[in-house]
Write a structure and sequence with these properties.
mainly alpha; 3 helices; 77% helix; 0% strand
């Protein structure tokens, strides 16, 4: 491979590593549950991309399916339950007929 192509791949790998670290820090430091879960899902997808770059497609598929997909869906469901009922104000609040 030519030196320019090799240098660009190193730059892409460096940016990928920085993005993974930034998403991990962001997912841990945000106060909103929903935002944290979305950042966690994005982190899982970037980790899957990192596994592809490391020539491990089996791990990439597992990370995308389990790490980002299944765990993300479960965390979103848990965050929705923690947020409480999704009724607009006035609906179901001690209404008597």
């Amino acid at each position: 491979m030519d030196p320019v192509g090799s240098l660009s791949l190193v730059a892409i790998d460096g940016l990928l590593a920085l993005a993974i670290v930034a998403l991990a820090v962001g997912a841990l430091s945000v106060r909103s549950l929903f935002t944290g879960v979305v950042l966690f899902i994005a982190l899982g997808l970037l980790l899957a991309l990192a596994w592809v770059r490391l020539h491990a497609p089996d791990l990439a598929l597992a990370e995308a399916a389990i790490g980002a997909g299944l765990a993300g869906a479960l965390l979103l469901a848990a965050a929705r339950r923690l947020a409480g009922p999704a009724h607009p104000e006035g609906i179901g609040d001690d209404e008597q007929a």
